[in-house]
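Hi there,

I know you've been waiting on this one. I reran it after we fixed the sequence typo, so this is the corrected version. Both the input and the resulting structure follow.
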Amino acid sequence: MTGSIKYEFSATPWQHDAGWVFVSLPKGTSKEIREHLGWQEEGWGRMKASAQIEEHNWNTAIWFDSKAETYLLPLKAEVRKKLKLELDKELQITLWI
């Protein structure tokens, strides 16, 4: 996994107008990540991460959404298809930063 700090949370996928599918990290988790690891952010609030849903792990990145004051984790089509993920169905997610 990319990082050594582990976060576990539940979130529900949602679709942006442009078709991208995301989960929003809990605001408390996002605040903690930004306070302690914000120095790792690259352009546009991007931060490298690794994620796991069920038994599927992948390297990815999270982006800080300043309007929502939370990080967003994109769920690529490949991941959604492999895990047969549905919008509006809560997921258990593990994230490493």
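Quick highlight: The beta strands are 6-11, 14-15, 21-24, 46-53, 56-65, 70-74, 91-96.

Best,
R. S.
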